[in-house]
Design a protein that fits this description.
alpha/beta; 285 residues; Aldehyde Oxidoreductase, domain 3; TIM Barrel; 5-stranded antiparallel beta sheet; 11 helices
């Protein structure tokens, strides 16, 4: 997955405007306009790095002349104390962009680190570890990118690129068959249709209407194993709900194709990353 650089720049400009407003009072009061310096972005704990192009764009939005020298790239396993990048140039731009750049780096690296840890618990061709729509509003593009960097896969990006029929849709439609038939009439033929089920009866109904993907919602690993046997390759099988580091291997052993985990993005711990600035110098005239 690659993020849209045009949309990314728009997002960064919105975030910078939120932070800077009419100006950086502290930096503009203390730092001379012609001051230059070098900042070192440093990992304060071990993890998987994600978001370096985002951090670079933050500084370049503030000053296109900023030099951003990368020492570690997205997807790299980094160690505590490791210098990840150098930011050289106008000291005001570096200080003004510091917090936003670090916020992105810390958040995205936290997601990539957690994803990587879970992916390593279930090595092999399948199941794939996938994300959900439980993302920070406005940051979905980047948070799903971070999942991909960490070795995970992306579920649907939004409501528009796949059909996912959940319990409330089924209630309104009067059953799985009615919901799937309506979805087929109202969706492009290229859209996959996924149905969430809670028991084996739901699995049978989803199979009868030829759902492309069947989501097993909050089932035990034992029941998942029965569902996988029942599906017998006629649809992709996704496990979802209550997946943790403690039970993910048992879920994988049930034979599912996909394991979706909202916690990859909705409650992740940010990776500790800082920026250390050298003493400023005055730009030579």
């Amino acid at each position: 997955m690659y993020f849209n650089s045009i949309e990314l720049r728009k997002l960064i400009e919105v975030c910078l405007n939120e932070d800077i407003g009419t100006g950086d009072l502290t930096t503009n009061s203390i730092v001379p306009a012609d001051a230059v310096s070098t900042g070192y972005i440093v990992a304060k704990e071990d993890g998987v790095l994600a978001g370096m192009p985002v951090a670079e764009m933050v500084f370049r939005c503030l000053d296109p002349a900023i030099q951003f020298v990368v020492h570690a790239g997205d997807g790299d396993q980094v160690k505590r104390g490791q210098v990840l990048a150098e930011v050289r140039g106008n000291a005001r731009a570096i200080l003004t962009g510091e917090r936003l750049a670090l916020n992105f780096l810390q958040r995205l690296s936290g997601i990539a680190t957690r994803t990587s840890r879970l992916v390593k618990l279930v090595p092999g061709e399948k199941p794939h570890i996938v994300d959900t729509r439980k993302t920070t509003p406005g940051l979905r593009m980047l948070e799903k990118y971070a999942v991909w960097v960490g070795g995970g896969r992306n579920h649907r990006f939004g409501l528009y690129d796949a059909v996912l029929i959940k319990d409330n849709h089924i209630k309104i439609a009067g059953g799985i068959a009615g919901a799937v038939e309506a979805a087929r009439r109202g969706s492009p033929f290229t859209a996959k249709i996924e149905v969430e089920v809670e028991d084996l009866a739901g699995v049978r109904e989803a199979l009868e209407v030829k759902a492309d993907i069947i989501m097993l919602d909050n089932m035990s690993p034992e029941l998942m194993r029965e569902a996988v046997a029942l599906v017998a390759g006629r649809a992709l099988v996704e496990a979802s709900g209550g997946i943790t580091e403690e039970n993910i291997q048992a879920v994988a052993a049930a034979g599912v194709d996909l394991i979706s985990i909202g916690a990859l993005t909705h409650s992740v711990k940010s990776l500790d990353i800082s920026l250390d600035l050298e003493k400023i110098k005055r730009r030579a005239s």
